[in-house]
Each structure stands twice: as structure tokens, then as C-alpha cells.
Request: fold
Amino acid sequence: MKLSNRTEYGLRALVTLAERSGGSPMSTRQIAEIEGIPEPFLDQIMVLLRRAGIVKSVRGVNGGFLLAHPPDQVSVGEVVRVLEGSLVLIGCVGDDDEALWCERIPTCHTRKVWVKLSEGIAKALGSLTLAEVVESEEPEPAARAGQGQ
Reply:
């Protein structure tokens, strides 16, 4: 499974906003510069996140984007679903309507693997919030190298 650049960049942009939670709005230009994301692509991502209610936009000279909710109330799973669509790894694991195309479902032993894996991914991403992502950042490699000496 490989997530798209849209999801990677979107999550990085949201982490940047989460780090400054409670501050003034940030423009896509500011976020793009901090995160090294192409600004036109980030503009598209922020539109999707705004429509989903994850960020809100502020107009004006000092406008930009803010998180619509506190970082501890935004799950990574929600972000991934907005930017990727579905977390389903294989078609037969989706909703019953999506899975009806496969005649093997009643007797398919491997479907159990895909169901368990999909459930595990959804649970892991759903339980992780932006606040936890911000808190869990690893120290810079130079800082780690100095530990234990």
C-alpha cells in the first residue's frame, strides 16, 4: 500500500498548523516554504481539507488557514480518508455493495487477511491524532547521536 503525495503533503501541512495551534492563520505560501511543498499543489489540498471541515480559511491581508478543531480532535485516519478516499486495500473488503462483484467472497480464505489488515490500518490511523503526531516527532539525527555518550 502506498499513500499519495497528496496525503503526505496534506498531513505535513496539518502538522505545521497544529504546531502553531491557537496562533494566527498561515498562508499556503508560508506552509509550502516551511514544508517544501509545491504551493499550487498545496492550494488544491487545502481546498479539500477546508471542504471536509478539517481546516478553516480566513480572508484578508493576514488571512490563511487554521485548524478547524484542536489538534487532539483531528485523527490521522480522517485526514487520510479525505485525501485518499477510502482506506480499503482491496475491492472485496469494502462495503457490501462494493464487494458484491466478487463471487468468491463466501469461500475466499484470503479475504480474511485483507479484512484484518484493513481493520488494523483503520484502527491505527483512527486512534492517532495530530496532537500525538506533533508530540511524537523524533529528535534530529545529530541530537540522537549525542545521546548515551
